[in-house]
Specification:
metal ion binding, calcium, Immunoglobulin-like, cytoplasmic vesicle, 11 domains, six-stranded antiparallel sheet, membrane
Length: 2001
């Protein structure tokens, strides 16, 4: 992604009518994007972000963007009117050296090519190019019932999700790729979030658990990856829920060029418990924690808002407060959570006093807490003030117990503690403090992106951590008691800082005057209006040319001094510990470097032991002697101080004990280096101090009022301590070299702004007198003022001083008087006022030059068409200002004229040197000049020049001048001054100074008293003095004795430099700088490995300071390499530094040694330079002691003298020039007739020309010989340079490619040693018909080639019985065959060297590779005595170099971890092979939806070698509608495989087969003997042994414990094969090659496993190919018979109040969710028992060797192809309660792994949850024996079903089942139906014997009455019947009198078929009470009642029956 930020424009011209409405457009590669239009504005501000998708293609060096600004018109013909355009090159972004351009002003050019305005823009391009790969493997123990888990992975705002699985232990095995392109600092702070959801849940809170960690944590792991780790899932919102399951993942961060780590699966991994492989340390569980961050206050905030209102207040007499123009609040970010404090308006020192609570999981995977201070803005976005980070690893320790660390002895081991911090200030850094209304170009620094260049304030915070806590409020107020406690931590003490500037050199250009500002915190910031002024800056100085290349500030013996007082907390107890540990670490590192150097130099063991023992003794002595400060009496000790003290003491004691044991027990010095390095790293880690509240010291270089460059110096490095000498900073009071740098330097230090030598001392004011022991020389302080005069009518006086004063400051604007100057307190005047011209302001333009050209312009004018006459100002400078006439120029002292005045003709002028112009009012001078005269020209001028040369360096400098002297002159006020008066001068001035000395203080410490007194006067004196002090009249001078030194720099050669020219070479030379002097070497043309052999001599270098101090810490010699260009500016090639060897006594015979020093450019290696330097102290009385002058080469060039230059020896270099390959076109023409030029050590040899490159790219003559003088020491050996020259028509011979071979060690050989490295030429290779054993027919079904493959990789589960049968295996290499160490890259005959052409821009794979050279080298010494015979030649017997036709067989086995190309995270890969011009496309056999396809394909092709040597195997992604995408490719060099002596064209099998070619192995062995130059093999008569290469081999030794079969072949062939396999030849193999993309060549896109066989057709056709067709799954059937259930949960209550369940059982296999089967329903189970006799049948495809089920299905209905899944065979069984009118209720489930089956219980009583692993009470610690159903075939028993209730698993029921595995053949022989359907057999299932109560009430009313109503209410029914009978009896009793009886005969029958008659007799008694009709109804009702009673009796009788 390319991001362009269009910020603003200014200076847009007005239109004729009104202002324009500007709109900006950016065009990139034809794509245009626009901003919005800004109405009526000449200075529009857009601030819009335009993004362009790069579409996977990187930027190249020619990329650019066009910026077009137009006027938006709504009315008129043209909608857009052009204002201006600009073209911006993206070359620097494309090179990768920077990630973004900061805001930049670009001039807009109109149609007339004139500037019309300036546009501001920012371009950013993310620098980190790589991938994050997340593989989700499986989950375990996820909570919930009947869940469907899915994992969502979020990385860098990209989200992927897995497929939905079922169960609590899902298996995913899916990988996701996230391509990232961003800054590493931003990337490492990004979070990786893994969340597990229940997709079945419809609720919003379906999150099961999550885990977060940052990318930086992964990147810091070994290999930048965590492999197959378990993540403990949790809930961030509710920490009381505890663990929410486990998730196994692999996460890796793969950058460009990184090799992704391989993932291995252990066979026994699935049997291990999860806790054994947790990501967190063993024994530590993820616990909920609260990080309490107390934010108290902040201070020193810079101005962030506009001060317009405050300025208005001051205008009207009010008080303007610029200091508090900021509205700060603090934002805290950690682990994706953000909290912020309240906003405090208009306050630069806010007090929040708030508590921020961060709820996290501990230990957390995120390590840094980000604190960002913002300025709140009401209308616009909030601006960042500064950012800092709290690193938890620095404020916590994982050792010991987390809660009770005191239980462990601190002396025995390191203790652990939770994160804790403060109360302490943390400092914020960012962009400069000065406020401007324009956008801040360094705003990114305020967000923590890069090193901050200025102090931005600080915040007082306190941090603590509490475990198992939960807070209600995330933001709360701090109590008053806690606020009062922090007061003691804010006590300030006065600090004094002194900085003495010794030198400032290596300035690139003179420019404006320069001064340096020193600040600590906001003390000393000159340009910040919110800070009080201090004497923190040096005086302005003009840079002086050093005579060669650089500029320097001419301080000479007067060194500027800056003093500064500030107030900070006393944290000496912390910084003392830091400095002591740093001191110990530096001494240890120095000794360790000496030890490593001795090891590399191959010193004898005794010497190594001596150095090693010295290291151990010194380290133990340091650890014992240098104690850390005691914290007992310190007033402001924090908890972290105590913890770090304990931790450091324990660590130091541990290191001492380990060192003691090592000293007693160690036997190998080299083996101990790793442990010593670990100790060094541990000590450096202990030295990190998180609570360092004293800010860094920042030095700024200012040009005028503009900040140019900066340097940051940590305060502890210059801090003085009275605790011990070692507690002082390493640079305290010592001169150090500082290379300043530009803020946010895009070029990463290609150019040095300035090199400083500065001495700094920082200490408490009470220790100021200790400064005397560190200071050198004497301090002097001067008051100064300037006397000003102007020339009026030829006389100098004060009359013409317009706006100036007679006496003023340096600016001339502040009026001063001598009598108003008062010395500061404790100081007094030493002498009277005197004139002292300022040296740096009096320097002329010729300062530092040895040759100079004076110039003046002669001007003439005329009327149009008239004659030329002298102008009013006949002589001016280049700017048209008045200048001296040629006659007024005088030759300065020490110079001599070399020629007279002449006009300059080397310009765009006519023959007379004139150039012409036209004046356009109101200008009085032409703006442009042309060389041709026209009639309308009225002005002309010509440049007159006069060269002069310096003849003497002697100059007279007067220390004191009389009052009439010391003037410096200028043409106008404000112009640069010069020493000599000129006729054009109108203004002059001179400086008056008066010296002050201390009155009551003695020593250098008086300098600190001075500044304190001046600060007091600032408020006591009147306004004038106040202004004077602010104007900087205070100046501190540092006087010290100087010494004269003599420097010699020996520059011998360089190597591996960058190619800066298009011809693939450079023209390098070196600028060598030492302090204020520099010299330059000669230019070496067209080389990347120049040999200068030059000595640069620096005479009479004046260095101030003690020679012993200089010897201990000498200034570095700085070398800057440049490429000389005849056109254009010379380009920098890199820089290196070299410390000189200081010799205070030149007579001492100590010779410097040439060493290689790295050359760096933009932070990267850019070559090496071989050099040395020595600095000699000159004694005027002993000039003869200086070393002899080195021998000369030419008039002014000195060579490196003998004794320093390398010792050489005559050496022979044999060059095997085999041929050229893949040569690209040059200048649009193909390379047709090339030859090779070989250069080394000044010797050159060239091959013959290849006549026809297309037909035969090999050279006619293959061997060349060079005799060259090479250094004996390998480190000094020059490289071999290869140049390919193409011979073209008309004699043109351009260089079309070059290569540099640096290391020659690998090509050195012993010429008299037997040559065993001859190649296996094509005619020597005897090809077998088939090199691989063929299996027996009866074994083909049991084993196949894949069994052999899996047996070779060690996968015993998939290889089946292959290994048991004793068959052959093959070698599976984890890398390319060329990367296997024992085969030497297959370059034993000839290597491949890449030829390059053009300018190299990057260190990665260079796109300028234009071809390859095939060849090799043999290097050996030649005898010095001519009488000794020359050694034999090395390249003697060579194969034929002509083309030969070959048959190629490519076997593609499988691919691993391919890059996904489809939106579903998958790929549809297929193979495409290219060989020469032939292409094989296997698109029809693509593998759908997989990242790990098994191809098992063989391809056969023919080709000619070497023309078609490159075999390209590509993997493409199949797409139906769109274009197929390339996943990756790999290229194999077939020529190397054919020519290699390792016989890599066809691997050797383990055993011989009778089908092999007769005498095949013997022929191969004979050819090996021939090419190695040894006798042919000799066989014994019985073929039991043979002799080869002087060694005897016996067949019995090879086949001692093996059984000999007839198919193994004859003994001779078997023995020959055994001998061949012992010769290191390539065996039968499979190689693993990395697939790479052409867009990202160094980033793996997956891997491919394959091998290639090469068969020359001249030897006949080979045998049939090997069959590697992939395995096909077999059909199996799982028959699960559900017999019974028991103890099932009774989930429902009937209408009669009984607990019951309607039980049924459901089952399925993973991946076959569509084929779920369930039994019938056992209704009304009142005791939890169920009877079913039901059969489940699941048919599936199974790979027995891999023990995986193969499932194929479409993921979505719109998918074209089925996706193949390989899932472990499992069976899920669930018990459910059936509900007809609602959802069924889930009662329990069990998950059965068919490969590791849970052993069933024989009886239901023995069946419990303890049988399930992971359940409470289970024996999960004991690994169960593998119990595979595939081996048992059938098993029957009881299994428990579990259900989760209230977070716990309870028993949901027990199931009795029979599980049976049936193969496809058995399915036909023993058929069975589902359920109880036909064919109901094997076994036959009878209907279940269920109780009568098992029925559905709705369809069985009678059974309902019997089993529900009767059984529940039978006694009620019986009592009711009895009551009715009694009532009936009493009723009949009333009818005792028969009057007129009414008889009703009711007949009913019972079981006995008896008839009864009931007679109803109406009694007269009733007649009395009832009427006739009433009696009738009474009788009828009584009859109905009787009938009902009879029916009830009948039904009851039936029930009883």
């Amino acid at each position: 992604m390319l991001r362009v930020i269009v910020e603003s424009a200014f200076g847009i011209p007005k239109k004729k009518l009104g202002n324009p409405d500007p709109i900006a457009a950016v065009v990139f590669k034809g794509e245009k994007k626009k901003t919005k239009a800004i109405d009526n504005d000449l200075n529009p501000v857009w601030n819009e972000v335009l993004e362009f998708d790069l579409k996977g293609f990187p930027l190249d060096a020619s990329s650019f963007i066009d910026v077009v600004v137009k006027d938006y018109e709504t009315i008129g013909k043209d909608k857009y009117v052009l204002i201006g355009t600009a073209k911006i090159s993206l070359k620097d972004l494309a090179s990768g050296h920077m990630s973004s351009f900061p805001s930049k002003n670009v001039p807009l050019i109109n149609e007339k090519q004139q500037p019309t305005g300036v546009n501001t823009w920012t371009v950013s391009f993310f620098a980190f190019d790589g991938q994050i790969r997340v593989r989700v493997i499986e989950g375990r123990q996820l909570p919930g019932n009947n869940i469907k888990p899915v994992v969502k992975v979020n990385v860098c705002e990209q989200t992927h999700r897995t497929r939905i699985r079922r169960g609590n232990n899902p298996y995913f095995d899916e990988m996701f790729y996230y391509n990232v392109n961003m800054l590493p600092s931003e990337l490492f702070d990004e979070n990786i979030s893994l969340r597990v959801y229940d997709s079945f849940s419809l609720r919003a809170d379906s999150l099961i658990g999550e885990f977060k960690l940052d990318v930086g944590y992964i990147y810091e792991e070994p290999g930048h990856a965590i492999m197959r780790k378990w993540l403990l899932l949790g809930d961030t919102d509710d920490s009381n829920l505890g663990a929410r399951g486990y998730l196994k993942v692999s996460i890796m961060v793969v950058g460009t060029g990184d090799e992704p780590p391989t993932e291995r699966r252990d066979v026994s991994e699935e049997l291990d418990d999860i806790e054994g492989n947790l990501l967190v340390p063993a024994g530590v569980t993820m616990r909920s924690a609260v990080i309490n961050l107390k934010v108290y206050r902040a201070e020193d905030m810079p101005q962030m808002d506009d001060a317009f209102v405050q300025s208005v207040k001051q205008v009207f007499g009010g008080e303007g407060d610029r200091k508090n123009l900021v509205d700060p609040y603090l934002e805290v970010s950690f682990a994706g959570k953000k909290l912020r404090t309240k906003i405090v308006e208009k306050n630069a020192n806010p007090e929040w006093n708030q508590l921020l609570n961060l709820q996290v999981k501990f230990p957390s995977m995120c390590e840094r807490i980000k604190l960002t201070l913002y300025d709140w803005d009401r209308l616009t976005r909030d601006d960042a003030i500064g950012t800092t980070f709290l690193n938890l690893s620095n404020m916590s320790s994982s050792g010991g117990e987390i809660e009770d660390f005191l239980s462990m002895s601190a002396a025995a081991s390191e203790v652990g503690f939770l994160p804790v911090f403060g109360p302490c200030y943390v400092n914020l850094y960012g962009s400069p403090r000065e406020y401007t209304g324009l956008p801040d170009p360094y705003e990114d620094l305020n967000f923590g992106k890069g090193e901050g260049v200025a102090y931005r304030g600080r915040v007082l915070v306190e941090l603590s951590t509490q475990l198992d806590e939960k807070v209600d409020k995330t933001v709360d107020d701090i109590s008053n008691d806690d606020i009062l406690v922090t007061q003691k931590y804010q006590r300030r003490r006065k600090y004094s800082l002194c900085a003495v500037f010794h030198s400032a050199c290596m300035l690139q250009e003179p420019g404006e005057p320069i001064q340096f500002e020193v600040s600590i915190g906001n003390y000393g910031n000159k340009l910040d209006s919110t800070c009080k002024p201090l004497a923190s800056t040096t005086q302005y100085s003009f840079a002086v040319f050093d005579g060669n290349h650089y500029y320097y500030l001419p301080w000479a013996d007067t060194k500027p001094v800056v003093i500064l007082t500030s107030y900070w907390e006393d944290i000496s107890h912390r910084l003392d510990s830091v400095n002591v540990l740093h001191f110990i670490a530096e001494r240890l590192e120095s000794h360790l470097t000496s030890l490593k150097t001795a090891i590399l130099a191959k010193e004898p063991e005794t010497r190594l032991a001596e150095i090693w023992l010295k290291l151990i003794n010194h380290m133990m002595e340091d650890l014992n002697s240098f104690k850390l400060p005691n914290l007992a009496n310190q007033p402001n000790i924090t908890v972290l101080d105590l913890q770090l003290k304990t931790l450091r003491d324990a660590a130091v004691e541990s290191i001492k004990q380990m060192a003691g044991r090592m000293r007693e027990e160690a036997t190998d010095v080299k083996a101990t280096v790793g442990d010593i390095e670990d100790w060094l790293e541990r000590i450096k880690q202990l030295a990190e101090e998180p609570q360092s509240s004293v800010p860094d010291v920042i030095i700024w270089m200012l040009r005028g009022e503009k900040r140019v460059a900066y340097a940051r110096v940590p305060a502890n490095q210059i801090l003085y301590s009275n605790f011990s000498e070692q507690a002082c900073g390493k640079h305290c009071g010592k001169t150090q070299t500082i290379f300043m740098q530009y803020p946010m330097d895009k070029n990463k230090g290609v150019k040095i702004p300035v090199q400083l030598r500065v001495n700094m001392w920082l200490g408490l004011s009470v220790h100021e007198k200790k400064f005397n022991s560190f200071s050198e020389g004497n301090f002097s302080v001067y008051a100064e003022m300037y006397e000003n005069q102007a020339q009026v009518f030829g006389k100098w006086g004060t009359t013409g001083l317009v706006g100036r004063h007679k006496f003023s400051d340096v600016t001339g604007k502040v009026k001063l008087k001598q009598e108003r100057f008062l010395p500061p307190r404790s100081w007094e005047w030493d002498q009277d006022w005197f004139v002292d011209p300022e040296r740096c302001l009096l320097t002329e333009a010729d300062a530092g030059h040895t040759e100079f050209t004076d110039e003046v312009f002669q001007n003439e004018t005329r009327f149009p068409g008239g004659e030329w006459k002298p102008a009013a100002e006949p002589y001016t400078d280049v700017n048209g200002e008045k200048a001296q006439s040629p006659g007024e120029f005088e030759c300065p002292s020490g110079w001599a004229w070399e020629d007279d005045w002449t006009f300059d003709s080397n310009r765009a002028v006519d023959e007379g040197g004139w150039e012409y112009g036209v004046t356009i009012p109101p200008d009085d001078k032409p703006k442009s000049w042309v060389a041709a005269e026209k009639m309308y020209h009225i002005h002309r001028r010509r440049r007159l020049i006069k060269p002069r040369r310096k003849i003497s360096d002697k100059t007279a400098v007067a220390e004191r001048r009389e009052p009439g002297e010391g003037w410096e002159y200028s043409s106008l006020i404000g112009w640069k001054f010069h020493r000599k008066e000129r006729s054009s001068d109108t203004f002059r001035r001179r400086r008056w100074r008066r010296k002050m000395i201390p009155s009551d203080c003695i020593g250098a410490s008086a300098i600190f008293k001075l500044e304190g007194a001046l600060l007091a006067q600032l408020f006591l004196c009147d306004k004038v003095v106040s202004v004077m002090i602010q104007s900087g009249i205070l100046m501190d001078d540092f006087h010290s004795g100087s010494y004269i030194y003599h420097l010699r720099v020996y520059i011998y050669q360089a190597r591996n430099l960058c190619a800066m020219d298009k011809d693939s070479f450079s023209d390098p030379y070196v600028h060598v700088s030492f302090l204020h002097m520099s010299k330059t070497t000669e230019v070496v043309r067209t080389t990347l490995n120049p040999t200068w052999d030059q000595t640069l001599i620096f005479e009479d270098i004046e260095i101030y300071g003690d020679p012993q101090t200089v010897a201990h810490n000498p200034p570095d010699v700085v070398l800057e390499l440049y490429d000389s260009d005849q056109v254009g500016k010379d380009e920098p090639m890199g820089r290196c530094t070299c410390p000189p060897l200081v010799k205070l006594n030149p007579g001492v015979d100590v010779t410097p040694k040439l060493l290689w020093f790295p050359v760096t450019k933009k932070g990267r290696g850019a070559g090496e330079a071989l050099l040395a330097a020595e600095l000699l102290l000159k004694d005027k009385s002993k000039d003869g002691d200086m070393p002899l002058v080195p021998p000369r080469r030419g008039e002014k060039l000195y060579m490196v003298p003998q004794g320093i230059r390398p010792v050489v020896q005559l050496t022979a270099i044999e060059v095997l020039t085999w041929g050229l390959r893949n040569m690209k076109s040059y200048q649009l023409a193909t390379v047709s007739s090339p030859s090779l030029v070989v250069e080394c050590g000044g010797e050159v040899v060239q091959t013959a020309v290849i006549k026809n490159f297309k037909k035969n790219p090999n050279f006619p003559g293959s061997v060349l010989l060079l005799k060259v003088l090479l250094p004996k020491e390998e480190m000094y050996t020059p490289p071999i340079v290869l140049k390919v020259v193409d011979h073209r028509p008309f004699g043109r011979k351009p260089v079309v490619g070059q290569c540099t071979i640096d290391c020659l060690e690998e090509f050195r050989c012993d010429p008299y040693r037997l040559n065993n490295e001859a190649c296996m030429s094509a005619r020597d290779v005897v090809i077998d018909i088939e090199d691989r054993p063929i299996m027996k027919t009866e074994e083909e079904e049991a084993v196949d080639w894949w069994s052999k493959f899996y047996a070779s990789v060690g996968d015993q589960e998939k290889c089946g019985p292959y290994l048991k049968k004793g068959y052959d295996t093959l070698q599976v290499y984890a890398s390319e065959l060329e990367e296997v160490q024992e085969f030497h890259g297959l370059t034993d005959f000839c290597s491949t060297f890449k030829l390059q052409r053009g300018k190299s821009e990057d260190e990665e794979d260079d796109p300028s590779v234009v071809g390859e050279f095939k060849g090799s080298f043999k290097i050996y010494p030649l005898p010095d005595d001519p009488g000794i015979p020359v050694p034999p030649r090395q390249f003697r017997e060579l194969p034929e170099s002509g083309p030969q036709e070959c048959l190629i067989r490519i076997y593609v086995v499988r691919c691993i971890d391919l890059q996904p190309k489809d939106t579903n995270g998958m790929c549809d890969p297929y193979i495409k092979i290219t060989l020469g011009r032939k292409t094989l496309d296997d698109r029809d056999n693509y593998k759908a939806n997989t990242l790990n396809p098994e191809f098992g394909r063989m391809f056969e092709m023919s080709c000619f070698l070497p023309q078609d040597k490159d075999l390209k195997i590509s993997v493409y992604d199949y797409d139906l509608l769109s274009r197929d995408e390339k996943v990756g490719e790999t290229v194999i060099d077939l020529e190397n495989r054919l020519l290699s002596r390792f016989r890599s064209c066809c691997g050797l099998p383990q055993t011989y087969c009778v089908l092999l070619k007769p005498n095949g192995c013997r022929s191969i062995l004979q050819n090996v003997a021939r090419v190695r130059g040894v006798p042919p093999p000799h066989f014994e008569a019985d073929a039991s042994s043979l002799t080869f290469s002087g060694k005897q081999y016996n067949l019995q030794d090879f086949e001692r414990n093996t059984v000999t079969h007839a198919h193994l072949g004859p003994p001779r062939e078997r023995l020959a094969l055994h001998v061949l396999r012992s010769q290191g030849l390539v065996p039968e193999h499979v190689e693993t090659r990395t697939l790479c993309s052409s867009h990202q060549p160094n980033l793996s896109q997956g891997r491919i496993q394959m091998w290639v066989d090469v068969f020359p057709k001249s030897l006949g056709l080979p045998g049939p190919p090997c069959d590697i067709t992939p395995r096909k799954a077999k059909k199996y059937s799982l028959r699960a018979i559900i017999w019974n259930t028991t103890d099932v949960i009774l989930d429902e209550r009937s209408i009669t109040g009984e607990n019951m369940s309607d039980i049924y059982v459901k089952g399925w296999m993973p991946g076959m969710e569509d084929d779920k089967q369930k039994t019938d329903v056992h209704y009304r189970s009142l005791d939890g028992d169920g009877n079913f006799n039901w059969r489940f049948i699941f048919e599936f495809d199974y790979l027995p060797a891999e023990q995986l089920c193969v499932m194929s299905r479409k993921e979505h209905f719109w998918n074209l192809d089925k996706t193949e899944f390989r899932i472990p065979p499992k069976l899920f069984v669930q018990i459910w309660d059936n509900d007809k009118f609602s959802l069924d209720d889930y009662l329990g489930s069990v998950e059965l792994d068919l490969l590791n089956l849970i052993p069933p219980a024989k009886t239901p009583e023995k069946c419990s949850l303890k049988m399930i692993p992971g359940m409470p009470g289970s024996t999960s610690s004991k690994k169960p024996q593998p119990n595979s159903l595939f081996s048992q075939k059938s098993v029957r028993g009881w299994w428990p079903c579990a259900i989760e209730k209230d977070g716990k698993h309870v028993l949901g029921g027990k199931v009795e089942m029979t599980l049976e595995i049936v193969e496809e053949k058995e399915m036909e022989e023993r058929p069975a139906g589902k359920g109880r359907d036909e064919p109901n057999m094997n076994p036959k299932l009878d209907p279940p014997n269920r109780p009568d109560t098992s029925f559905f009430w709705f369809t069985n009313p009678c059974k309902t009455m019997k089993f529900i109503v009767w059984r529940r209410f039978k006694w009620i029914f019986i009592l009711g019947v009895v009551f009715l009978l009694i009532a009936l009896f009493l009723g009949i009793l009333f009818y005792s009198l028969p009057v007129r009886p009414l008889t009703v005969n009711l007949c009913f029958s019972i079981s006995e078929k008896k008839k009864y008659t009931i007679t109803l007799i109406r009694k007269h008694v009733l007649k009395i009470f009832l009427s006739q009709s009433q009696l009738f109804f009474f009788n009828f009702a009584l009859s109905v009642l009787l009938v009902s009673l009879v029916y009830l009796m009948q039904t009851t009788a039936f029930m009883f029956k």
